[in-house]
Design a protein that fits this description.
By secondary structure, the protein is α/β, with parallel strands linked by helices. It is built from 9 helices and 10 strands. The strands form 2 sheets. Strands 6-7-8-3-9-10 form a 6-stranded mixed beta sheet, with helices on both faces. Strands 2-1-4-5 form a 4-stranded antiparallel beta sheet, with helices on one face. A hairpin with a 7-residue loop joins strand 9 and strand 10. Helix 6 crosses helix 8. The longest helix is centred in the C-terminal third of the chain and has 18 residues.
Length: 266
């Protein structure tokens, strides 16, 4: 697999009324094409800042961010983002919400009929064939997130960026969508970078887990390979020794090596 997303010596400093705040320092990361990478760490460690730099929503203070060999300068259709908040337009149906994104990317190169076909295929991919004409207020929170994922996938991005996409959902819905995302990624061979607080989610879905040190001036503290065969069955993994070892390493990093100073003093 070739290197696809690269962060080289990234530093991110914000200017506030209280002065300068360095959120990230000396962040280096390489994501391979077709790889699923999770970024995990305590609140305030810069996980979402890393994702926003890759998305082009933030310009790093210093360093270089690359995607497919090109420097990232602003948002682009090759990098689609799924946020924790689905961000659907309430006055549009599910189909129309996805169609809007498809039209913005492919409107000048394919026919109107093909745009609708792409939209339908994306909604079908996430299991929403029966909800295409429904409005956001007529569907559940989990279904709204699936529309958001469909909208991102319909753009055929080179990289799918996900910022705690299941964080606001109940446990059963979250588990269902995690399994569905795993199937979609296997089918599409998408490159995925996902921010999460959920250790089990990171181990279940990822090829590698990037663990961030605490902020300020957070950086990549450790990268852990997840050498678990795919497809992964969450029930079978519950008693899998390798799964438990990897889970334990992540927990050890988060709560022993890089827990908050006030916690260490307790």
């Amino acid at each position: 697999m070739r290197d696809f997303v690269k962060l080289e010596n990234i530093e991110m400093t914000f200017i506030s009324k209280r002065g300068e705040f360095t959120a990230l320092r000396d962040v280096n990361l390489v994501v391979k094409e077709g790889e699923f990478v999770s970024v995990i760490g305590h609140s305030g460690c810069g996980k979402s800042t890393v994702l926003n730099i890759v998305a082009g929503l933030l310009d790093a203070t210093s360093g270089v961010a690359l995607c497919a060999g090109r420097e990232i300068k602003g948002p682009g259709p090759e990098r689609a983002v799924v946020f924790q908040n689905h961000s659907l337009l309430p006055w549009l149906t599910c189909h129309q919400n996805v169609f809007l994104a498809v039209e913005s990317v492919f409107g000048k190169v394919v026919s109107h009929t093909q745009l609708h076909e792409r939209t339908h295929e994306a909604l079908s991919l996430v299991g929403l064939d029966d909800a295409t004409l429904k409005y956001p207020h007529e569907i559940s929170g989990g279904m709204k997130q699936r529309v958001g994922i469909a909208r991102a996938l319909a753009m055929e991005p080179k990289v799918l960026l996900m910022d705690e996409p299941f964080g606001a959902l109940d446990a059963l819905t979250r588990a269902h969508l995690q399994d569905e995302l795993s199937r979609i990624v296997a089918r599409t061979q998408a490159t995925v970078v996902m921010v999460t607080h959920d250790v089990d989610e990171a181990v279940l879905l990822s090829d590698r887990i990037v663990m961030m040190s605490n902020g300020p001036a957070a950086t990549v503290g450790q990268i852990l390979n997840v050498n678990l065969a795919r497809p992964r069955d969450r029930v079978a993994l519950a008693n899998d020794a390798q799964y438990m070892r990897i889970r334990g390493e992540v927990l050890s990093f988060l709560y022993e090596k890089h827990r908050n100073p006030d916690q260490r003093a307790a």
